[in-house]
Amino acid sequence: MHQTFDAALEINLLHANQAGADHNRSHFDEWGITCFNLMSSPGAGKTALLEKTLHCLRYALNMVVIEGDMTTELDADRLRQYGVPVIAINTGRSCHLDSKMVSGGIHQLKAQYNPSDFDLLWVENVGNLVCPAEFEVGEHAKVALLSITEGEDKPLKYPVMFQEADCLLITKMDLAPHLDFDLDKLINNVRQMNPDVTIIPVSSKTEMGLDQWFTWVKNQVSLIHQHQQLISV
User: Fold this and answer.
1) pLDDT 10s per residue in the chain (233 long)?
2) What is the rounded distance in angstroms from the CA atom of residue 135 to the CA atom of residue 68?
3) Does residue 106 lie in a domain region?
4) Is 14 inside any structural domain?
5) CB-based contacts of 130, cutoff 8 Å, min separation 6
6) How many domains are contained in the chain?
7) DSSP assignment letter at 125
8) Which parts of the sequence belong to the CobW/HypB/UreG nucleotide-binding domain (predicted)?
C-alpha cells in the first residue's frame, strides 16, 4: 500500500525534527545540562508551576528557561521576575516548539551565557495536548501537566501525550472539593496509557505535592548528570 502524500510528509517532518533534537541533546550532554520539556493544554498551570519551582529550587540548581508561546512574552516576563535567564520564542501559527526553534534558543543562550554554568534547562512548550508530544526538542525527560478541570477522560482521548510522559503532574488539586472529579479514575486511565509514569497530584496555590515534585526534579537532574559524565569519558 502506498502512503498518502500527507502521511509521507509527516514522517519526513518528524524524521528531520528528530535529527535536530538529537543534535540539541548532544549539546546539552556536552555542557552537562539537563533539559525538561514541560507540556500541557492551555491553562493547566505550566507557568504557575515554573514560578514555584524557580523560586524554591533557585539555591539548589542553576536554571534557565526557553519559553514558547504563539504570541507575546507575557509568560516569559512572569518568569524573569525570579532572576533566571528566560529566552522567549514566539511560534506564530505553530502549535508547538520543534527542535529547530529550540536550537535557535540555544544559540541565544550561548551568545549571552556560558551554557556549562547551568544545571537545568526548562522548555515550556506551547499549550497543546497533541503536537508537543510528537516533536522532541532534545529533552532528557517529558513532563506533562493535566488539570483536574479538564476531566478524567483526557488520557484516553489524547493518548500520545500521556504515553510519552516521564512525569505527570495532576494540577489544581485545590479545586477538588468544588468539582465532580475522581482522582482514582484519572490515575487508572493514565496507567492504561503508561504504566510506568510518575504521577504527582499538586497545587501551585496551596503547594500540595510540590515537595515531591521538587524531589523528582533534583533526583532526575542528578541521574542525568551522572550519565552525562559517563558518556563524556
Assistant:
1) 444 435 454 556 788 999 999 999 999 999 999 999 999 999 999 999 999 999 999 999 999 999 999 999 999 999 999 999 999 999 988 899 999 999 999 999 999 999 999 999 999 999 999 999 999 999 999 999 999 999 999 999 999 999 999 999 999 999 999 999 999 999 999 999 999 999 999 999 999 999 999 999 999 999 999 999 998 87
2) 14
3) yes
4) no
5) 95, 158, 160, 161
6) 1
7) -
8) 37-200
